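Below: protein 1.
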Amino acid sequence: MSNIILGLVIVIAGFLLVWKTEWIVANFGSVYWAEKHLGTEGGTRIFYKLLGIIIIVIGYSVMTNLLQPFLFTKLSPFFGG
């Protein structure tokens, strides 16, 4: 039950990051790396939206208890597992 609630909170945070991107850029400013590598004018907005989508996927993985198996299979080559 706690995984569902935690995952839902993470999904909501990711959704707000995608939905309120303009507010975040207005209050926190632009990301220099994103502006340089992801586009000239909208690189920061793309960065925040992509970050929000990744956070949403992590939230759903937490809700379904698939985060640990996913990370184990993807990161095991780096740790010799």
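Below: protein 2.
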Amino acid sequence: MTVEAAVLWDVFEEHLDEATFLLQSWRTAVRSPRTSLTLLQKTVEPRLLAHLDALAVGGPPVADALLWPALGKESEAKAPAVAAIGSALLLGDDAAERDRVVDALRTTELAMVRAGLIQAFEISPRADVDEPLKMALY
């Protein structure tokens, strides 16, 4: 059995759907005066990170077949989905993958993809994405 055959695509699609929903929920809640950051850290964030981690664990097969196509020229993905995708791609330790996300931000002509990737960089816990982001935006 090949690695490709072993991937449970419906599971990864569900992780992407859930990450997108939770990212939208997080962004709405973080602006609300009725929600504290402590509450978000205990409720939404762990679930969001679990789904993003699951996408990242899928590795290159999931990235190449599910995540990267949503950032392409024919993408119809909305900004929250792109933000979830970008966040999952930025979670790994692969500098080449991070550079590929930066390049996608730099070269995309699609407003939704650009907005979503900027959001992914904004919420990334990684310190090593700040400088590449600045270079892509200026």
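The CA atoms of residues 31 and 115 lie 18 Å apart.
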